[in-house]
Each structure stands twice: as C-alpha cells, then as structure tokens.
Amino acid sequence: MGMLTLGHRRAGMPPAPRDVVGTSPPRPDALAKVTGAARYPGDLSRPGQLHLWAVLAGRPHARILGVDARPALAHPGVVAVLTAADVPRNRFGLIEDDQPVLAEGVVRWVGERVALVAAETREAAATGARLVEVTYEDLPVVADPATALAPGTPLVQPGRPDGNLLTEVRIRRGDAAGALAGAATVLEATFTTTWQEHAFLQPEAGVAWVEDDGRVVVETAGQWAHDDRREVASTLGLPDEQVVIRYAAIGGAFGGREDLTVQPLLALAAWTLRRPVALVWDRTESMLGHPKRHPMSIRARWGVDGDGRIRGVEADLTADAGAYASTSQEVVKAATLLLTGAYRVPNVALHGRAVLTNNVPTGAFRGFGAPQAQFAAESMVARLAEAIGDDPVAFRQRNLYREGDLEPTGRPLPAGVGALATLEACAAEARRRFGIGWDGLGRVPGASSAPRQAGEAVPSAGTDGIARKRPRRGVGIACGIKNLGYSFGFPERATATVELYGRGEVERATVRIGAADVGQGVHLALRQIAADGLRLPLAAVALVADDSAEAPDAGSASASRLTLVAGRAVHDAVAAARAKWPETDDERVEATVTYRPPATTPLDPITGEGTPNYCYGYAAQAVEVEVDPATGVVRVLGVVSAHDVGRAINPRAIEGQVEGGVAQALGYALLEDFRMADGFVLTRTWDDYLLPTALDVPDEIVPLVLETADPNGPFGARGMAELPLVPFLPAVAAAIHDAVGVWLTDQPFTPERVQFALDDSPGTSARVRTPSPATSSDDGS
Amino acid sequence: METTISPPRPVPLQPVVLHVNGSDHPLLLEPRRTLLDALRDDLGLTGTKKVCDMGNCGACTVLVDGRAMYSCLLLAVDCAERRVTTIEGLGGPALDPIQEAFVAADAYQCGFCTPGQIMSLRALLDAHPDPSDAQIARAVTGNLCRCGAYRNILRAGRLAAEIEADRRAQQGGQDGNAPGR
Amino acid sequence: MRRFDYASPATIDDALALLAGGDGAVRPLAGGTDLLTLMKADIATPERLIDIKRLAELDDAIALDADGLSIGALATLDDLEDDPLVRQLAPALAEAAAAAASPQLRNMATIGGNLLQRPRCWYFRSSLVHCWLKGGTECQARDGENALHALFDQSPCVAVHPSDLATALVALDASVRLRGPAGERSLSLGEFFAPPTDDRRTENVLAPDELILSVRIPPPADNARGTYLKAMDRKVWAFALVGVAATVARDGDRIGAARIVLGGVAQTPWRAREAEDLLVGQRPDADLFARAADAALAGAAPLADNGYKIPLARTLIRRALAAVTADGAPPA
User: Is 3.20.20.20 the CATH number for C224-325?
Assistant: First the structure.
C-alpha cells in the first residue's frame, strides 16, 4: 500500500538540487538491527562491573520501620546495599521533584524503589535483593481518585497545599451554562479510560561508571539526554557538566522513557561505589516501575442549536495521577484544553483535575492526554450528529475549527488549521477505498459493506435481537487535534551545531544535536534536512546526537516535536554555517543556532485565558469494523488515517508512524487492559496485559498525508507521530455503534465490555458489576 | 506476604556443550541458567533479546534443531546435543535473504523485536519454502512488535520467500542446463 | 529463578526413583513452558528438576490401534496440530492445539505438560499474594477482580483451568496412562481432573511421584464429528475466555451421542451433562442447540465481573453444535 500525498508539495519552497527532503532513503541503522549487532542498554557491559538489583516495595502504601541489609550483605558476592541515606539529594522529577530515588520512611506505590543491591554477579544481586529485610507497617491505601478526594482520606504526599488534589485547571469562555440551557439539543455522557502501558520491548537498563576526570557517565536509553543529565546531577548534588548521559540504541519509548527510572540508581551506585555498574530491569519491574497513560473519567455535556452548530460544552475530567507528579500537571492541562476537540465552541466551561493515589504514577504516553479527551469529545460529536439526524461528516464540517478561530482559551489558533482538510480527505478516501462511508454531506445510502462479501448492513442496527446476533460491519469516523511541541509556557527550544569541512566547496558536515531516536527515525530526518540545505549527499552528513557532552540540547523526543523544533534548529544552523563559509578560507566553519518557536503562556488560573500552544497537528481516521454481537469480539478491518504533516521530510518514516500508531491505538481501543486492585498491579506480565499481534492489526491501513506548510517548521514540516493515537478510539466506538447500535463509553472495548453493552444496554459496562442475567431471552440464534 | 527465605544451597555447576551457530561451546553452568542467558552472557551473543523472559513476546526466539523456540524458557543444560541457531548464525559474507528483505521492506522501527521476527521467519521458510500469506502471518504471531511494524514485517516475509524462490530457480536453471553442456 | 539441581535420567524407573519422596520439591521437566514461568515468578520453588525428555520409554509417538489413538506424553502441540491421524480422528484436539499459544510455544509445549499447567489467575501468579491455591487461607479473586474466573463453583478457589487441550480431550472421552512407584494406572480425564481441595491444592489427582506416560483417545463412534471453539481477548495467543469442545455422533437424522465440554468456566474442564442429555435422541436444529446451550449454563453462578461468559459460552455451544451437525461438513 503506497502512501497517498495530497496538497501542495513543496509549495513555496525553493527547489533543492538533491531531493533528499521528501525521499525515503534506507535507515542508517538497518544493517546493525537486522544482524543483531545493534547494542541496546541491556547489551552493554563494562569491565569489572557490579550488577545492581533494586528492591521494590511490593506494597502500595506503608511506613518503613526498618531496613536490615545484613542478610543480604552476608550473601556471597553482595558488595553493598544502598538506601535513602546514601542518596546525596533524594528527589527527582520531570516537572516537580517530588519523587525519591530510594524511599524515605514511606512507600507510596508498589513499584517504589526501597534499596539497591550491588553484587559481583546478577544472580547474587537478585538473591541479595530478596534477602534485604524491610519491615513495613501498612497504611490505608488510596486506591482511586474519588476516595482520594473524600474528606478524611489519608494523604499520599503529606504537606502538599491541596491534599491529594495534585492540580486543577479551569478554562472558561462565554456562558456555557446559559448556552446549554438555551440549546436545541443537549446530550450528556460519562466516559472512562484505564491505564495504558508503553510496553517498549527493551526494559529499562544501562551501565554507569566514573571517569578518571570525575565525570559520571550513564549509558542508557531515554527521550531527553540533557534533562536526564539535569535530574541525575541533581540527585548526586553535582553540577550538570559532571554527569554525562549517553544513549545506546533505544528499544522503543512512546513517552515511557521521559521519566527517570534506572538512571539515578545507576549513577548513585557508580558514584558511591566507584565501580562500573550495570542494571537491567525485568519485565515486571518495568510494568510496575515507570508511569503509565492516565486513567480518566470524563463527564461531558454538549449542546447544539437548531442549525446544528455547537453552542456550548461543559466538561469535567478527573485523572488518576498515581503516587507522584511525573508530568500529570501538564497532561491534565493538555487534556482539559482538548475536551472540546477541534471544534469551534463559543461557550465552554472545562474543568480538569489530577489526583494523587497509591496507584502507579501516570505521565507521558504518545498522545499526552489527547486520546482520552477526544474519546469523549468525538463521541459526543457523533452522538449529537445522530441525535439531530445529521451526517457525522457534515456535522463536523459545520463545526470544525477554521483558520483564525478562537481556542477555548480565548486566543486565535496558531496558523495552519488542517482540521477540515484532513476530515474531508479522510472521508473521501474511506468511501473510495472501502466502498462505504459518507458522501460529503451524507452517508451513502445502503453502501455499508456493499462491495464486501461477508458482513451485512441492516439500517435498524441493534434494534433487532435476531439480526444483531450475526457478525455485523460498521464504519466510524473521527477527528483529532494534538499540540505539537511544548505547551503553556514550558521553555521550548532546540540547539544545533553544524560543522562544515572542505576545501573550497563544502565537502562534508557534522551535525550535533542531542535528539533521541527512539525508533521513529528522527536521526535520518535531521540528516536529510541538513543534506538538503547543504546540497550534499546524505552520506556526507554525519550526526552526533547520543551524548549530552558532545551534542547540544534538542529538548525531548516527545510532543511530536523533534522534526519541527530540532529540524528547524538544524535547518537554521546549516544556513548560518553556510553563510559563514564564503567569508573564510578555513577548511572548517561552525555555527550554533538555538531555535525558539513562538512563545506560549501559562493559562490564567481563573479563566484559563492564554496562548497554550504554537502549533497543532490535525488528523482524521475512518475505520471499518466487524462486530460479532454474540461473542463481543470486534475486528478492525481497515483504517484510513489522514494527517496534515506540513511537509513529509521522509514519507516512509511517516507511513511507519501511522501504521505503528494505529497498532498501538488498536491495542488501546480493543485489547490493552492494565488492571490495578487496591494499589496492586494485577497485570504484571504480558500474559495478563495483552498487546496486539500481527493478526490483530487491520488488514488495510491507508496513510493519507496532506502537506499544508507550517510557518515555522523546516521546509514547512510539522510533527505527526502522536496523531494516529488520537481519533482512533472514538472512531472505533462510532463504528461499533454503526454495526450493533450501542455506544461504548468505557475503554478498552474488550469482548466482555461489548457483551455487557449489548446485553444490558443502555448504560451498563463491565465497571458496573452487574452479573449478566442467566436468561436466554436475548440470545436466540 | 513474605515467604520464608533460606539462603540458597550451593548447587554444583554442570558441564554442558552448547552447539551454537555451528560451533561447540563447552560451558560450566548453573542448571538455572536459561539458554537465553547463556547465549547473551556466556557466549556474548546479544543479538537474541531479553524482553519479557516469560515466553510472552518472542524477542528471544532462536532455532533449536531447526524449530523456532523461546530461549528464555529453555534451560541451557537442557540444550546439550541440540543445534542452536541465533541471529548471529544467519547470513555470512552476505545477508540472509530474510535480513535483506527486512532492510528493503523497512520492517522495523526500534529494531528490538527484529532478530526474533527474523528467526521465526527463518524457521518458516526452512520448513515451507513457498509459504502462503496466512502461513507468513501465523509464523510471526508469537513475536510482538510494539512499534507496530507488522505490515512491513509481513511484506518482508513475502519478499524473502520470493528472493529465495528466485535463487532456487536460478540454481534449478543451472542444474537444468547441465545436461546440455 | 532460585537455584535448583538438574538430573537427566535415562529410564522411567530412574526418573521415578528421583521423584520419589521429593514431596513436590522434585519436579519433572518436559517442555518447561509453564513450570519455568512459575519458577521465575517465585510461585514454584523446586529444589530439583528431573528432565524427562530423554527417558527411553517416554516418547512423542502418535499411533493408532484397536483401542484408539495413543499419544505419547512428549508429543508437542505442534505435533498434534499437524498430525494426520489426529486431524482425522480427533479434529477437536487438533483445533485446540492450533488455537493454543504461539508457534514457538507449540514447538516446545508437550501434551503431558499442557494438561498439568497451572491456572492463569493474576492472584495465583503474583508472588505478592499468598492465595488459597498456594496454601493460604483466602481466594482473593472470589471478591476481587474476577473477570477471567469461574462460572461454576467447585472449591474455595475460583481460578479456571487454562488448557485448551484438556477441554477437547474430555469431549473425546480420553484417558491418561500414569506410572508411579506402585506401577501403572489409567484414568479417564474426567477422573484425572479434580477441583483442588484443602489437602490437594492442584487441579488433578496426579501424585507428585507419578508421570503421565500417554494419552489415549478411544476410536470415534460411527458418524461422529467434533470441534473446538475458543473465545479470546486477542486474535491469537491468549488463554480462553471460554472454550467449547463438542463431539456429536449421528444416529440417522437424530443425535445418537453428544459430549459438550466447556473450558474457562471452572477449575476443571466442565462437562455440560444436562445439555448432552437434552440433545440425545433429538433432531438437530437451531432451537435444540439454543435449549442445550441454556441447559449447559443453567447452573452457572457468575461472580461480580464474569457474567459475560454466560452468553459467550451459550453462543459458542450453539455454534459448535451447528458446526458438527451441519450437512456437508467433513465427518470425523
């Protein structure tokens, strides 16, 4: 399946002699990865290294009465047991440093690290960790946000100003209550989502040592080497420059490597023991040990006027932050802002909260709050369209953001609003490709599944108890919007250094920029941008990216931002270096440029007014599903995924991001069910936490790429890697509704949930513990 | 709930000769050593990846007597007298056709599942040189790819089968010509 | 994994001698696909493993004689899936093997080990929980998270048997040949599988010093057909939410004999005798299948989160019966 490209390719850009931007050269790491030669953190070792093993709490909330390391130290091979007292400055965190490297007095979630064992062999370290005797006094477990906010509930982190309420955000514009009171049609519903685990394949791992010059080197995987450095240095009480973070090949990330996990443990042991150390987490440690996607509960009320225009939205979101802040404040701000999706809504009252509990902390995961918020928003839009007898595409066409529209925060959207274009391209392609869907302003009558042999379409889907017992096909469509780049005034910049070499002509270049390639292919894209600007073949452009001491700070591999921000920094540094070249006889020139996109601002705490973002990505997805109402099994047959990428620097990498994003979105929608009970993780292995296989992904994924140039991105490029995760869940919900007539409101849509919805519709879900009636009235074949 | 922990008893190391990628490796191992750990830690063959260590992901897939198996669920001492092939044992001066196909089809992103995927397809093509699409898909159902590169992995499987079929045809053609020469 | 000893004896007698008196601290090792995961999770902590893959008298042979099909305990799931005899005479077993696990696991796992695998209950599999099945006093799933648990209450534990093969083999009226210090014995699988009790917290009556030698499937009745259907959360490589094995022998235009066995609903394969009784002597049609399905689940006692399994099981029963009675389907 080739990628389809619409829009104005290269519009307004001067032609480059070599078309290295817009092409898909082979990945530079291909040979190493297919031969097994690539070295990932778990493959590293240092001569004379000690092996580390962390002692995890294994209980959600307890006071530590004592740690007796003697039995462990008596075990042959065990060299040291480190505890909180050994950590120079025992706090870290990406946004707020509220988390200890090793627990101090209390454990707040099952994955909390309590002690660190160092031994001559991995087996001795593992045994030593079992032999460390920690005495606990269990404390009451704060197991969910509702409990956490109830009066009298114990505090997860005593001493915080708002108790267990970690953060709260309000965004208001116009008069939502009045608008809803006067609306022609008002719908209300509540949506829930659960945790999602990143399940990157390479578990947290790394090596660390102290150089002769006193620098602590940690070689590992992550998403932002320079911030890892800042945080690690802080825990050791060292200046940033005395810590070096190096990235080996990175075995997936998806947001799950934004927070520190093993890095401060490695640095602490190497620094304290003055020996090289290695640490590899096992899968269960990884499942417990890094933050997940936030479970959210979202109540939404939407109202439309008689013309089918959205008048007002009230929405309220509560997220389970778990035991520590991680990036919860930022995720909840982003999610709250996106509770109205990509729709012009004159009157909004949006409210979001993140709540501390004794559950696994939650933080960044591809999409960063957008998937949950738009599960609610897009489901409401689809239901409103149905309620007023409108076509889901036409309703969206009428209400989607246009260029110059105001955001809920009262300021105009950044230029480059591709909401309508992606929707229309997606709808048209879905109709063409699947022979189903919508004819611009209306559903093609009776078209559903007509070209297909299997499946069937009955207009009164779901109302006929007999017909709905056979597998039924349905189609659904949804839009998505997601900020690209940092938001709400978080410092946003990337620095690149470009060195040019040659005699007379520029012959080769070295680009230095500390951007993490987590598998998405950004290193190749950055080299393509440089090669294009320098009129050099790709092979003449070297990249130094994986060492915090050798490359400047690019910011994180997150928020789909590296192509835009780091790419622009490279682009501008290339231009600056080239500009120097004719002025000198040197055989080497160098230029360093820091690119800062247009500034964003924090939101006003009362009104929510402000400029939250400088760039948005837009997407639309259409899915066709087959639902077996008798078993609840949903199969996604095909997906059209439309994205406005500004400019496709590397089309094949974009195609990979679409297909991979759809696979993760499919897992989120149908399969992945991370479960906790009373603070304990039930899904500790991949036996319990099921990930999509090759047979679960749709047969057909059609990436559809639009190129409306971004004003700031290099060659007009903007990011896109998170967008496939955004519309998918509500698109599947709409398709299931189309097939069998029920709206699912609780993610994931497992067979159990679909069964519950069909048997007890309306309004019952697996979360409502209602045993199915043991009658056969609804079950005749 | 703590279980009573007694210090581990000393267990004698066991001699075992592992036959890996055509070479014999005499080792002295604890019985609890998995084949995966022996390959990675004792033989330095780190191309075989440790992801779940519970038989739930496929990244540790190797061929044992020609069949794809999870090396994390095999004891090394249990693999004496068995032929083990790892990703390092594929290809030679040139890439194995499956490796070649993975490069051509862009069949990975982070690359961590790649050796396991390739080994599963190697087992398939050795047993079924002319596989159906369904056989290719089924052959990699025991190998998770979290980056979601599945469709390209399936394309790579198809492409590899075609490459090998072409090579067989060429060889067959040469053989066919032989009587005429 | 904790330390253990390893021995690879040459004969069954040697192996039995090594197992004798071990009282669970000595465990046989075949495919290892379940035992090693239990050991890695610190759920099983044997001091010694006895490799039984190299025993002279224990094999993976699949053979047909007058008493039916004999399957050596070491036959792998992959062997069962592909074997022509199994496919012809016991298709429900071939289908169950094909629906289980992943290609790699099917290459490793043996039929003997598959029948002995322990439940997948998340409380049982967590070393942090000392549940009843592991010798504790309480089943945490009974009032906890029990979406994957039993519909039929057989013991203090509500975990379900995870084996696809077991469901199919009970429907095929299979038996196991066992050997222990006192010699050999044969048990029907209906006797072999037994809900755990206070004194025996396992899902079968195999003694710690006994080995499964082989599985025997009696010759199918004339005009008999069978199938195995499985509902999973994932398209492949997941344990059954519900599995159904059905075998039906036709007697003219009526059902002469029937077996319906459910997996994923009890601690042992669950034989739906009420449904079987209802079918015998009747003409097959959709209404009959629906009544049989209702009868099979009439005694179900769902827990808080697993009621969905009732309609799911009914559906699979109806579909399985339709499949094995449809005209034109290949006989078995």
Answer: no
